[in-house]
Amino acid sequence: MRIGELSRRTGVNAHQLRYYEAQGLLEADRAANGYREYNENALLKVKQIRHLLGAGLSSEDIAYLLPCATGETPELPGCSELLTAMRSRLQRLDDQMTRLAQSRNALAVYIEAAEHAGNESYPPFELSAS
């Protein structure tokens, strides 16, 4: 099938499919006219890629995990290399969430102080150093 059909059948635009191919996540043969030709397995691969991207994995992580993936969701075997890669990504997400929570709290303090500026009964503005 050509890229347009794969795009229609998966709901993923052609630009993203070309990106997946450039990242080594998806393979296409070339017809004599130069058009990309995908086999039926590409449908499953695209669905797997979308699920893994939705889990916050990078295309580099997915390239590492995809050869071991089975099923649409996909399922990943519990080998140590895969678990290490996924735990590393989970730790990066946890770290990002911590930084975002700190930024959110600091911003809330600024907003609260700005809303109460000039109000003599309100305690002085203090931003914690966390």
UniProtKB/TrEMBL annotation:
Q: Which InterPro entries match?
A: DNA-bd_dom_put_sf, MerR-type_HTH_dom, MerR_fam
What organism is this sequence from? Streptomyces iconiensis
Q: Which UniProt keywords apply?
A: DNA-binding
One Pfam family of this chain: MerR_1
**According to the lineage, what is the superkingdom?**
Bacteria
Q: Does the keyword tRNA-binding apply?
A: no
Q: Does the keyword DNA-binding apply?
A: yes
Protein name per UniProt: MerR family transcriptional regulator
Q: Give the HTH merR-type domain ranges.
A: 1-68
